[in-house]
Automatic annotation (TrEMBL):
This is 3-oxoacid CoA-transferase, A subunit. GO terms for molecular function: 3-oxoadipate CoA-transferase activity. The lineage of its organism: Bacteria, Pseudomonadati, Pseudomonadota, Betaproteobacteria, Burkholderiales. It comes from the Bacteria. Pfam families: CoA_trans. The keyword Magnesium does not apply. Its EC number is 2.8.3.6. Keywords: Transferase. It comes from Variovorax paradoxus (strain EPS). InterPro entries: 3-oxoacid_CoA-transf_A, CoA_trans_fam_I, CoA_transf_BS, NagB/RpiA_transferase-like. Belongs to the 3-oxoacid CoA-transferase subunit A family.
């Protein structure tokens, strides 16, 4: 019997190895798998490459993972914010490597990994330092930069509902990077607020099929306030 429901966050994260590339969902305060990030801090894997929309806020979540010294490199679109002091300190002291990627490129590089695309040409970044020394090509009179997929060893994502087969349904903006990260990783771990009985999820609402999901962990529902500060529901 296929049953992907994990007993706890710790059980779900137990197989993550040192040096892993970890794709972490979330955009702003929507869809951040906070319980999985906290669990990864406790789990102890180090020398990680983290792929995320930003580089953490305040001292919690991803910022706490950075502060614990577990991350070697971060690939993101928005590393600096008003409260990104943890990232700033580590980057300026040379303790953290940054690969800055325009947000559309980031999403497409992850999607390409899941779709089995070896590389693609994108116009964003041409003629800037972001293009680096990568190959460029003129296509139909427009200049493009060669981009490579971003594959993950593990994806940590947040969904709204799931079943024991791993089928996932998201809530509005919390969907963001979750679906493409699940497809791009060797292993996907998802938190959900509700576990649905098998067969009760409307197939038309399932965004991430269970074939892309390996572990599902149920978490309590917590209201998120502006700025990312949480309070009990």
């Amino acid at each position: 019997m296929i049953n992907k429901i994990a007993r706890s966050v710790a059980d779900a994260l137990s197989g993550i190895q040192d040096g892993a590339t970890v794709l972490i969902g979330g955009f702003g305060t929507a869809g951040i798998p906070g319980e999985l990030i906290d669990g990864l801090v406790e789990q102890g894997a180090k020398d990680l490459t983290v792929v995320n929309n930003n580089a953490g806020n305040g001292d919690t979540g991803l910022a706490a993972l950075l502060k614990a010294g577990r991350v070697r490199k971060i690939i993101c679109s928005f590393p600096r914010q008003a409260d990104s002091q943890v990232f700033d300190g580590l980057y300026r002291s040379g303790k953290l490597e940054l690969e800055l990627v325009p947000q559309g490129n980031l999403a497409e590089r992850i999607r390409a990994a899941g779709a089995g695309i070896g590389a693609f040409f994108c116009p964003t970044g041409y003629g800037t330092q972001l293009a680096g020394n990568r190959e460029t090509r003129e296509i139909n009179g427009k200049q493009y930069v060669l981009e490579y997929p971003i594959h993950g060893d593990v994806a940590l994502i947040k969904a709204e509902r799931g079943d024991r087969w791993g089928n996932l349904v998201y809530r509005k903006a919390a969907r963001n990077f979750g679906p493409v990260m699940a497809m791009a990783s060797k292993k996907t771990i998802a938190t959900v607020h509700d576990i649905a009985e098998l067969g009760t999820l409307d197939p038309e609402t399932v965004v991430t099929p269970g074939i892309f999901v390996h572990q599902v962990v149920r978490i309590e529902r917590v209201a998120t306030q502006a700025g990312g500060f949480k309070k009990a529901a």
